Amino acid sequence: QKEVEQDPGPLSVPEGAIVSLNCTYSNSAFQYFMWYRQYSRKGPELLMYTYSSGNKEDGRFTAQVDKSSKYISLFIRDSQPSDSATYLCAMSGGNYGGSQGNLIFGKGTKLSVKP
Amino acid sequence: NAGVTQTPKFQVLKTGQSMTLQCAQDMNHEYMSWYRQDPGMGLRLIHYSVGAGITDQGEVPNGYNVSRSTTEDFPLRLLSAAPSQTSVYFCAIGRTRLDEQYFGPGTRLTVT
């Protein structure tokens, strides 16, 4: 089992829809969770950063972490065509999570929001 | 991609050639790293550095060398290019490995 699993999609939704993106993980030591957005032929950019469990909201974006289920989610409300991109989850256990504490990325989910 | 520059943007190499991918930052961040991104494989860590003079291997270090003589620069060297090294390479920086990572615009490398 890979440490971080993410459905690659592609996911296509109409403009205005609520989008749900998810990752599962196997390492219970992970406690730093991030979501990155990557537009085509660009570098990833950080969207959300969460430490441990709980919810975090920033505008139309909400990140949720459920450590008991080893499951994280990113919700996008009122999706826009400009949200069309690949979304990458990333996580780390710091000094206790293996991988020398470096981030481990999911493979990314490609999202397309149709006008 | 503010604060992180990568050169060149594109490169074509023949098998066996060597080259250096450049990464420079102006944010004075201690942590710098190199990733490669391949279709269906996601981002995989090649090498990283937690400060000047300190480097370590990531998940896929074979065929690559790094050095960090200054805080600003973290070059990635391909010693003898192979077609399997065809990829998009990203440099990333952060205050620490756990903080927000700022990615450069990437270098698209093709090895024939």
Please characterize this protein's 3D structure.
The complex is a heterodimer of chains A (115) and B (112). Chain A has strands at 4-6, 11-14, 19-25, 32-38, 45-51, 54-58, 61-66, 71-76, 85-92, 104-105, 109-114. Chain A has 115 residues and is an all-beta fold. In chain A, the strands form two sheets. In chain A, strands 2, 4, 5, 9, 10 and 11 form a six-stranded mixed beta sheet that branches. Chain B is mainly β. In chain B, β9 (87-94) and β10 form a beta hairpin. The A-B interface holds A 6, 8, 32, 34, 41-46, 49, 88, 90, 92, 94, 99-103, 105-108 and B 1, 4, 33, 40-45, 48, 56, 58-59, 90, 92, 97-98, 100-106.
Q: Which stretches of chain A are low in confidence, meaning pLDDT under 50 for 5 or more residues running? A: none
How far the N terminus sits from the C terminus of chain B, by CA atoms, comes to 29 Å
Please report the number of helical segments of chain A. 0
The count of strands of chain A amounts to 11
The averaged pLDDT of chain A comes out at 92
Summarize the helices and strands and which ones pair or pack.
The complex is a heterodimer of chains A (115) and B (112).
Chain A: E1 4-6, E2 11-14, E3 19-25, E4 32-38, E5 45-51, E6 54-58, E7 61-66, E8 71-76, E9 85-92, E10 104-105, E11 109-114
Parallel strand pairs in A: 2-11
Antiparallel strand pairs in A: 1-3, 3-8, 4-5, 4-9, 6-7, 7-8, 9-10, 9-11
Chain B: E1 4-7, E2 10-13, E3 19-25, E4 31-38, E5 42-51, E6 54-57, E7 64-66, E8 76-78, E9 87-94, E10 102-103, E11 107-111
